[in-house]
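Q: Hi! First time doing this. I have a protein sequence and I read that you can turn it into a structure. Is that right? Here it is:
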Amino acid sequence: MLDLSIWAKKKPEARSLDGVPCVAETDYIIVGAGSAGCVLAERLTKSGKHRVTVIEAGGSDARFYVHLPLGYGKLFYDPAVNWLYKTEPDPGLAGNRDHWPRGKILGGSSSINAMVYTRGHRADFEEWQAAGNPGWGWADVLRAYREIEDTEAGGDAYRGTGGPLFVSANGKGLHPLVANYVAACGEAGLPFNADFNGVFQEGAGPYQMTIKGARRNSAARAFLRPAMKRANLRVITHAQVTRVMIEDGRAVGVEYLRGGQRVVLRAGAEVILAGGAINSPQLLQLSGIGPGALLQGLGIGVVQDNPNVGDHLNDHQGVNYTYRMTVPTYNDELRPWWGKLRAGLQYVLGGGGPLAKSINHGGGFFRTSPDLNRPNMQLYMQAFSTLLPRDGERPVLTPDPFSGLSLGLSNCRPTSRGHIRISTADPLVHPKIVANAFSTDHDVAEMLAAVKFLRKIASQPAMRCVIAEELRPGPECVSDEALIADFRARSGTVYHPSCTCRMGPVAGSSVVDARLRVHGVAGLRVIDASAFPNLIAGNTNAPAIMVGWKGAELVLADAR
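A: Yes, that's right. Below is the predicted 3D structure, encoded as structure tokens:
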């Protein structure tokens, strides 16, 4: 039985917020049990000195398809675990409304993502520090990454072992076509790279994964679940925080809805938002922190007028090229009933087969111009294809009825910027997401060069010998105009929105300072991917975890 004495040491006082009696008091409130929130919960409770309450809008991660690595396709449109956001119609995407899945579950998006583990280029973090954020340079974040990691491939000056997060090397059980892909990249001038998180990022090879023992190794599994055994941690699920309560310029608690009831929880130390790039700016705006004119127009009292809240939205845009192959792919294994049965038996009996991995077996990073000092494009290789309609008329992991393969890419450092804005004071209404994809000439020119290089890879002998034909966009799509029109029509998010509460030294251009404290409001921090000063090159789960790790250090240091 858990020892609850730490909660009894400080009796909840008979206080109220806005006339609503507080049902309880805690030291730290963490809003959101996503990648950063799970890390915060583990680190802030480790000493046993602090009472921590995590409030999560979603439910438990104890679901079969969450833990089955390839099961994330079943979660892509599942409202039980997914916020199911949609952007506003985007001229840069041929007027399409893009589908933005975000995790609404313990573990957040780390419980529904593709599990690729990439940390970003060292220069990305040097830029974070150079923008006026001391403590966020490469040496600082590398130290944190090495402490976080338990790298299957082994530790060195760049990689850590013995940390709480096991990272699979993904060296076994890869589809045979990965070898063709890597060889073709080499023939196109992109060498093999065994570790995109090591000395160099550039090159092609297998992706490392947050998979452990043939199960998804989400932030909930690696960090939150162990912390939940401690008496000083409470986790409240199916509870949506509706606003931060602020008294005399200080965050003193939160209001949340659970089971149709309005509940107020007071924080004795700090309120920490860890809801991610959409939820965190939404909650700040609902709480009176954001663009003043917008909030006044919605009848929300302005606590802190800061137009940067929800602004500077940055996301990676990606597109797939699809091929019919002359050799079997996972389509042949996972489409027929007997193939599904075989894959299921492989997984249940031996923890192997296609169900034990992400579909992204291979990938890489490249430069669209030799003049660039670092990669600006990311590659994805899938021995699988699904020509998925935009609005999900069929499941995302229903394979095509032929041997298909996809080669994809996404931009690493797009210059296009969007924003998140609430349109009502109702906290249950999704905010408006304006992505503004491909809204700069730079991003269009960069993607045009990138898709041409993708075709170059596919045309190399090692791939040409196993490709029957290009299906998307098809051989008739040749001119620059046609290629641009194609990627505008078929591109979309690769699920890395960031920077909407970005870090910086002054409120005139940012939302939080280098200690992740909200400008102008005491006792309030934002610690998640929304605080990124700029978008890193690569998948964002690893850096979100790192921000949670370093953010916890800052909170604990300031508590002394």
